[in-house]
Amino acid sequence: MARVLIGEFEGATDISALLEADPSITCEIVPPAQVLASFESLPPDLLILDANTHWALGSELNNYFNLNGHSAPAILALASDTHPSSEVQTAFNASMVITRPVQPTALLMYVERLLREHADTQAESLRERFTMQSDLFKMLIHDMGNAVMMINSALSFYNQVPPGSPEAVQAVYDAFDSGSLLESMTRDSLDVINVERREITVRRVTADLGQVTASLLKRFLPLTHDKDIKLVFEQQDDLNTFIELDPVLIWRAILNLLVNALKFSPSQSTITVSLTQGAQSNMLRIAIKDEGPGIDPTYISGLFDKESVVRQYKRHESRAGYGLGLVFCKLAIDAHNGRIFVESVPNGGSTFIIELPH
User: Fold this and answer.
1) In b/e form, how buried is each residue of 267-285, taking b as 16+ CB within 10 angstroms?
2) CB 275 within 8 Å of CB 210
């Protein structure tokens, strides 16, 4: 059933009675001061306001929608000689403006049209939300695949070294750590709705970013052997690398960048990971540089944007190939009040850069 919210004005009762003759419509008349509160309790499908009575409410509504991120319902505004249609359209951001006195037949026609359009918009929003959820699950599976790859690599390395040797023991530890990371990712999948809303739970602790990075590189190293890739870690001298961070989220973000760098690196090339002070003194910078083919400039602006990535998938266009992993990276870094970006030129390699605040 469609819900119509009517701001109280002279003639509102007659309009309500006219609309409720349709059994699919229910109306509620509220004083102007209660209109915003009604949105919070139960968002309407259509809002009907009178320009003369509710003129001051127009800017309040628009500010409310902008600040709270709500998508506005269909808005039908009634104009008069005092406030012409063009002014009313702008003031209320109205979906439709009609001039008083209102003819009942015309009013019913306009309301039916607006409710139909609003229903179509809501249905499209639900489809997009479902697609978002599906894509985020794919993103989590993508990250889990990276962890499984690290486990398999560690166990494969274990079979190539003497049993009981320090290398074998380290391989077991590496497999265990990667398994723990996979367990964390599985738990994270339960938070997928929050991720959809761009709300990632950040479990901050004081940690040494240099140690977190070095530990990850040590476990990542076996993956580079098959392509004979050299992995180099450089850390700026006398750099304070202790910051507040969520080690699991940052580990996953760096891991995604390393896996992408390995994917696009030719054999016998070098991947360089550096930890330095950022562009500002209160920032730490992690840079992952490869010697691959670089990224087509037309794709750089959309690398971290889920909608751009999905559009490219749907169109089956030639694309950069980084997929949804970078979308997660941006979500994780944004949650730390940091930033992530890329510097790349065709045939000149790529450098993905994370900056995190102290």
Assistant:
1) eebebbbbbebbeeeebbb
2) yes
Q: How far apart are CA 178 and CA 90, in angstroms?
A: 56
Distance (Å, rounded) from C-alpha 167 to C-alpha 159?
Answer: 10
Within-domain flag for 178: no
Give the burial class of 349: count Cβ atoms within 10 A of its Cβ; 0-12 exposed, 13-18 middle, 19 or more buried.
Answer: buried
- Residue whose tokens read 């009762």: 13
Task: Give residue 303's domain range.
Answer: 191-357
pLDDT tens column, 96-143 = 888 888 888 888 998 999 888 888 888 887 777 677 667 666 666 766
Which one, of 171, 184, 175, lies nearest residue 143 by Cα? 184
How confident is the model at residue 123, as a pLDDT? 82
Domain assignment present for 181: no
3-state helix, strand, coil in the chain (%, to 5): 50, 20, 30
Determine the Cα–Cα distance for residues 71 and 59; give it in Å rounded to an integer. Answer: 15
Q: What angle do CA 294, 296, 297 make, to 5 degrees?
A: 110
φ, ψ at 242 (rounded to 5°):
-85, 120
Tell me the CA distances in angstroms from 256 to 136, 198, 231, 291, 294, one per residue in order: 15, 19, 15, 17, 17
> What CA–CA distance (Å, rounded) separates 12 from 5?
10
Q: What is the CATH number of the domain that holds 7?
A: 3.40.50.2300
pLDDT of residue 356: 95
- Output the pLDDT for position 72: 61
Domain final residue, candidates 78, 102, 126? 102
What pLDDT does residue 133 have? Answer: 66
Q: Count how many domains the chain has.
A: 2
Can you list the residues of the chain whose pLDDT is less than 70? Answer: 66-72, 129, 132-133, 135-140, 142-143, 180-181, 184-200, 306-307, 309-324
* Best CA proximity match to 310, nearest among 59, 131, 91, 112: 131
Which three-class secondary structure state does DSSP give residue 72? coil
- Quote the pLDDT of residue 203: 85
Is 119 a member of any domain?
A: no
Alpha-carbon distance of 173 to 215, in angstroms, equals: 12
pLDDT per residue as tens digits for the range 303-346: 887 667 666 655 554 444 556 678 788 888 988 999 999 999 88
